[in-house]
Write a structure and sequence with these properties.
Strand 1 and strand 2 form a beta hairpin. This protein has 744 residues and is mostly helical. A six-stranded mixed beta sheet has the order 2-1-3-4-5-6, sandwiched between helices. The chain contains 39 helices and six strands. It binds one DNA strand of 10 nucleotides through helix 1, helix 4, helix 6, helix 8 and helix 10. Belongs to the PPR family. PCMP-H subfamily. InterPro entries: DYW_dom, E_motif, PPR_At4g14850-like_plant, PPR_rpt, TPR-like_helical_dom_sf. Keywords: Repeat.
Amino acid sequence: MFFSSPPSPASLIIFSPPLKPNSGQPPYELLKTHPSLSLVSKCKNIQTLKQIHAQIIKTGLHHFQFTLSRLIEFCAVSSAGGGETGLSYALSIFESMEDQPNLFIWNNMIRCYALSSSPDLAIQFYIRMLGSGMEPNSYTFPFLLKSCTAGGLFQQGKQIHSHVLKMGLETDLFVHTSLINMYARNGELVDARLVFDKSCHRDVVSFTAMITGYASGGYLDDARRLFDEISVRDVVSWNAIIAGYVQSGRFEEALRFFKDMLKGNVKPNESTMISVLSACAHSSSLEMGNWVGSWIEDNRLGSNLRLVNALLNMYCKCGDLEKARLLFDGISRKDCVSWNIMIGGYTHMGRHKEALHLFQQMQRSGEEPNEVTILSILPACTYLGALETGIWIHAYLDRHFKWSTNTSLSTSLIDMYAKCGNIQSAKQVFDSIYPKSLASWNVIISGLAMHGHVDSSLELFSKMVDEGTEPNDITFIAVLSSCSHGGLVEQARQYFYSMVNDYKISPKLQHYGCMIDLLGRAGLFDEADSLIKSMEMKPDAAILSSMLGACKVHDKVELAEVISDKLFELEPDNPGGYVLLSNIYAAAGRWDDVAKIRTRLNDRGMKKVPGCSSIEVNSVVHEFLVYDKTHARSKEIYTMLDEIDKLLELAGHKPDTSEVLYDIGEKQKEGALCYHSERLAIAFGLISTRPGTTIRIVKNLRVCGNCHSATKLISKIFNRDIIARDRNRFHHFRDGSCSCMDYW
DNA sequence: CTAGGGTTAG
């Protein structure tokens, strides 16, 4: 098959006299300088090598072992011809050789195996070599030991070590370093150190092998000590120590080493920069990262994808998405990693719509998503409530991955279903996976809680404990919030007690938050207060806000004033608390105080976080703000809103305008309510989906009381299930009532 | 008669 290549390009055709073996003179001088052979070293890929091979046969050069040696060596060395193709090509030459292969050829065959995907076969080849009467030399062992390192073959490595001793080759610097590396990479640091200490001829390379071993085992102090002992440090030794600190998460120190390296006038290379970029990404060192960016440009390395991806990752992790996107768009041959980094960057910064959009572009580009892609895109679906896209991904996973054993993938999928409003599918996926990780228990328990399935949520918690999975602090947030959604005061007390005493988990702010929210809502202000006093940390804004909310439910105006003073001290510029207090005043009819707060808000120039609701239709996420008129079908939406309004009025719905803060007329206040973002999303859902289809919307804030009662009626009037996720929980509206039983 | 060891992003 090697002779079936198309005719050589003109540049490869060499007219030279055929050579004959055994013609008296040893032809090595001639061979070395023969044009066909010097071409081998310039060879770019295996295709070209085949053409040269054909040429060699034509000229009779293949009768000389020297020639074949060079070909096999090429297969072992060249990255273009290496790997599996290189190995099989080398093998075919080896097996069809006329004479006994010499040691050089045996050694290079072992070298081919070391770089292949089955390095263990190198050992078999070595045994075959011994069987044919060949004795290994100082070149054989580095290749062989490299195979043991690559294949994790510690036992075989040990045996080979005894061969080394028998041959008296342990003092050979190359063999010595290979042994250290083999032991170190197999996690046998003590053995590695024994070998290291035995030799008195150590150089920077053997030091580095030992340092790498220590560093990858997390023994940074040992690595550091050896590093200090090296008299002349080169790039690779610097890289090893820098990478070691990066892998241990000690990024600032890694960057300090890098600066020392530059001070010592050692020139960094691509590997250095990949580690440095990783350190910058993790420690948000944008300045240093930018410096590396210009270094890459100066050294014209813009086409090195590994390096550019690392740079891209740095920009994303440092939050400079604009620069990242510019770089990303400029990469001509993006790989899966480039896409993953950019998509993950958007998700990470909360720009979920852009993440989803880029994911769709990725599919159009023909690049296949992998597990990492899915793990960054699922949270975006979850956040946006993009159930259709989520279902598509589920089907994609079924087709392409064995995902049910991948715990993070399945957990992410369960979370997506739960938070996109489809708790049944979440439960189905949960039931189907094995093993069930702690995280998967946590997401299903909190998912059920959010949907108001309090009983099954708590049952699942008992089942989890029965099956021997130890709950953690996150589990208890889920359990306590479950109690909170169900108004189960006594159970919550018991779980809280059990968490502290049985599981020795010290409560965090969120645990206190659930408890205080629950106690406050139940009107148990004294107990809530003493719980706050027992906390070892100061109550945060969330806790004070939920106390304030409880004051509203129970008309506690004076207490509300005390609490809001503390809240305003903590967050003077967050309008949420002011709005809540003003609502409490409004409910008590204290309009003067309402006006005072409004002035305070205006003086400080505070803006409420705008309410935003989204709905996914045909895999496209549509977002709406209050009074939003930017949507392409805005006209139809507002016609629908008017229609809804009329029907609501007919059904006897009376808008409660007391919570509207602005100084406007009663009629306008009603308007402000009708155009709340969730109302717009629902109206769009009604006009863009078939009758009877469930409408799912997601809101970034809590749903207001007025919209809640309106939505209940809408579900009845239009005969639709409406599933709404707000900041706090899910509301399933059906036939005029809501799954939350008006408790939220 | 040719060769060999240590560093590598999501």
